[in-house]
Input
Amino acid sequence: MRLHQPGPLTTDRLRPDELAEPVAGAGQLTVRVGACGVCRTDLQIASGDLAARRLPITLGHQAVGRVVDIGPDVTGWNVGDRIGAYWLAHACGHCRFCRTERENLCVEAEFTGWDRDGGFAEYLSVEATIAVPVPDGMTDLQTAPLLCGGVIGYRALRRAHVAPGQRVGLFGFGASALCAIQVARHWGCEVYVCTRSPDERQRARELGAVWTGGYDDPCPVPLDAAVTFAPVGWVVTRALAALDRGAIVAVNAIHLDEIPAFDYADLWWERSIASVANVTRADAREFLTLAAEIPIQTSVDAFALEDANAALMALETGRVRGAAVLAINA
Ligand SMILES: [Zn+2]
Ligand SMILES: [Zn+2]
Output
């Protein structure tokens, strides 16, 4: 299901194109896709809010499937292996960031479903060094939606230097935070959740939060680490004010409106604000291993591949309860 021209979402914004099954080139794997998650970023590219980098393009950057063809110069993979493809599609391997295992910052990075064809398709080409193994025990449908918000939520916890047993604050409680709280609880952390929605506060308590409140409710303890998920600048100042000495707040947002002025006393004592950009292959690998071990609970709204437009529209109008996922060859 390919995007030829971005614009308002309609039942034929993405069109079913017949393409030849890809032959794996050097360093590539061809994957028969089982399931692919539908993300807000797909929606933004389809509607034109995020400028398309290539047209036509196959969207989708949360794909799980099995290797059916292996290109020359590939080691470590076998036909039949189950792999995950995620937002990072390519990193140069030689820039100052790639050389220090920070390929998420690579200056020549390319992204799945934006620079390269993604997973809203029966077959997908993936770079063998970027693909991550998907552990047994989770279905394709359960795993796919973890490959974007789940992995980035995990990276955000790492950016905030969350350690086992700590007091961790989560500000905002969407799909990414739903995964992050399960990881933090697995690590034996005490989790404090701030969100406006009473339903989300209820859900957070069900998932083991020791305290929940609104953004104006003062957190009852100083936090060892915090992550903000709400795309609103003033929430960062709330999180900062709740931090203990030396603690970090990681901002899990690509776009944020202005962070309002705050008192330097809230940053003093070596508190920090960190942003989170993209993910590394280590993040994806570590998070999927953890997700299978926990195991992370996800709720999925499945759509057929040919209903990809309906899935995008359902996401746009807030009619998706769980994570929207295309069930393809599942
Ligand atoms: Zn995404
Ligand atoms: Zn690089």
Notes: Residues 39, 41, 61, 87, 148 surround zinc ion (ligand 1) (CB under 6 Å). The radius of gyration is 20 Å. The chain has two domains: 2-137+295-327, 151-275. Helices lie at 40-47, 140-143, 149-159, 175-186, 198-206, 233-241, 281-293, 308-316.
